[in-house]
Each structure stands twice: as structure tokens, then as C-alpha cells.
């Protein structure tokens, strides 16, 4: 009989519903992502999504960064830090799901912008200042530019985006510039 099997589906249903409500994923997507999460460290991640173990199990940045979706991304550490509960890049399944949800095609532009801004705002002061921009450019160019070139790009960005003249970029200014750039949406997208 398929009694126990049906039992499992019923038992994980409320958990899935919760995840479905706060992401842009279907049930099937969530199960697929749980399998991906599990595969990153089968010794650590419970086989069953039920109960509180999946909620408290976290994978380290080193375990997560190997995913093909992240491996080549110059901001992979920063992305994991922003989505991790502890800010250090360790991800619970909830964090993992949030991350893929924001990067999914279904996520609205506004949400993507909010997270992109947080990813580039290294010091967390809600402004993209000189140092944030410098780190962002060095990550993007994989550290291949000279200091002079980096400074030149920072000046150009500030010239273009800083509307209130405070030499840094706040969220509204960031939004203004980026929403005119169709490239942004394409780059801020991970297929699962």
C-alpha cells in the first residue's frame, strides 16, 4: 500500500505552503530546490523537509559557493552574506530559498533592486559610498584594473548617479539609474 508515502506528502504540505507564500515558487520548484540544497551536503541536510531540523540546518558559504549558479558570480560571497541570517554567508534552507526567489524571473524589479543595493552596500550604511563602489568595481572586473582606472570609474558613476551632490549614491539614485538599464534585469537573474 502507499499509506506511509501519502502520509509524508500530507505532513510536508503545511511547510511547503509556508514557503510558497513567501517566495515566487511552486511546490515543485521548492522540492527541486530542497533536493539541490540536500545535494550540497547530504551528511548534514535532513532527507525529510518536515520538523525543525531543516529550519536550523545551515550550509557554510564554502558548501554553497560550488553551485554552478554561483560559481562564476564575482559577488557570490556578498550574495550569500546578504541572504544569510547571520550575515556571514551561512545559509539555512529558508535563506537559500529566499536567495533563489529574489533571483528568479518572477521576482519584481523593485525587490531585485532592493537586494542589489544591499549586495553593493558593503558597509551597510544604506549609501553606496566611495569604498562600496571601489569594492563593487574590483569584484566586477575581477581585480584587473589599476587604482587609477578604478578611481576614474567611481568618478563617472558618481557624476552620473549622484543627484543630491553628497558624493554617494542612495537607494533612490541607484533605482533611478538602474531602472533605465535593461541589462540589470538580465544580470540579476539565476535560472534554477
From TrEMBL:
Biological process annotations from GO: calcium ion homeostasis
SMART domains listed in its UniProt record: EFh
Any one GO molecular function term: calcium ion binding
Keywords: Calcium, Magnesium, Metal-binding, Repeat
PROSITE patterns in the cross-refs: EF_HAND_2
InterPro entries: CIBP (IPR051433), EF-hand-dom_pair (IPR011992), EF_hand_dom (IPR002048)
Domain EF-hand, residue spans: 108-143, 149-184
Annotated SUPFAM superfamilies: EF-hand
Keyword match Transmembrane: no
A Pfam family reported for this protein in Swiss-Prot or TrEMBL: EF-hand_7
The protein's name: EF-hand domain-containing protein
Organism, as annotated: Caenorhabditis remanei
